[in-house]
Amino acid sequence: MTDRKDQLAANLARVEERIAAACAAAGREREEVTLVVVTKTYPASDVRILHGLGVRHVAENRDQDAAPKAEACADLSLTWHFVGQLQTNKVRSVVGYADVVQSVDRVRLVTALSAAAVRNGRELGCLLQVALDAESGERGDRGGVAPDGVGELAAAVEAAPGLRLDGLMTVAPLSGVYAGRQREAFDRLVEISSRLRGNHPAANMVSAGMSGDLEDAVAAGATHVRIGTAVLGDRPRLG
Ligand SMILES: *Cc1c(COP(=O)(O)O)cnc(C)c1O
């Protein structure tokens, strides 16, 4: 356990350095960027160690793994982000522990999240996941609404009881015109965010950037980076 703590502390310090350097290079304050550590596939004991090291935001992408982990860490003051593709039959469970759902990508999901949030008597933060490579009216291979569907989905969240529209999230596309062009992809997300904020000024979160491309995300203006492997190590399986 001590070894694991040393390892996580060293990894976290390296990631912190990268974020600080990227902020400095972009002329941004370090406080403008929130580190969200993606703990998927790793045990609750790692979450506990990370909390001890100062991490306050964690993310998960599968309800089956996340629900017991969140329960095991219920005594810690942590903000839980859900970042995976979300089936409506999992919504009740997810709303039981998630503070923010970053992967809102269709009206049906908005309806289900709203009903569950109201039932739980709480307000749930929502980010719209944008699939930069999706065609009009389509969803991305890894979830996400097409850029031209953002306005309609934002209006649905805004009108839904129990939900709060916090902003946008994206995963850099593996195919299409943005494949291998993370900086351009994140610039595009920030542009869509600017347009969104015209109608929804409070929706100012921009979640972009992972272990391999956090510098591009910070340079583009991301407010939240989602870091898994660079903190926890290579995942034992796809997650
Ligand atoms: C796993 C995951 C991450 C973290 O990716 P790493 O490359 O491990 O940093 C970020 N965002 C989402 C949506 C993920 O599923």
Description:
The two termini are 23 Å apart. Helices cover 43% and strands 16% of the residues. The protein has a single domain, classed as TIM Barrel. The chain is globular and about 50 Å long. The model has no long low-confidence stretch (mean pLDDT 96). The protein contains 9 helices and 8 strands. The chain binds pyridoxal-5'-phosphate (PLP).
Explain briefly what this protein structure is:
The protein has 9 helices and 8 strands. The protein is α/β, with parallel strands linked by helices and 239 residues long.
Radius of gyration computed on alpha carbons: 17 Å
Q: Which small-molecule ligands are present, each listed once?
A: pyridoxal-5'-phosphate
H/E series: HEHEHEHEHEHEHEHEH
- Total strands: the figure is 8
N→C terminal distance: 23 Å
Strand order, main sheet: write it out.
Answer: 7-6-5-4-3-2-1-8
For this structure, what is the CATH class? Alpha Beta
Helix content: 40-55%
CATH topology: TIM Barrel
The CATH superfamily appears as Alanine racemase
Please, what is the average pLDDT?
Answer: 96
Function: Pyridoxal 5'-phosphate (PLP)-binding protein, which is involved in PLP homeostasis.
GO molecular function: pyridoxal phosphate binding
Pfam families: Ala_racemase_N
Protein name: Pyridoxal phosphate homeostasis protein
List keywords for this structure.
about 240 residues; alpha/beta; TIM Barrel; 8 strands; about 45% helix; binds pyridoxal-5'-phosphate
Secondary-structure map:
Blueprint: H1 2-26, E1 34-38, H2 44-52, E2 57-60, H3 63-72, E3 79-82, H4 91-95, E4 100-104, H5 107-120, E5 124-129, H6 150-159, E6 163-169, H7 182-199, E7 205-207, H8 214-220, E8 224-227, H9 229-232
Parallel strand pairs: 1-2, 1-8, 2-3, 3-4, 4-5, 5-6, 6-7
Helix pairs in contact: 1-8, 7-8
The structure holds pyridoxal-5'-phosphate.
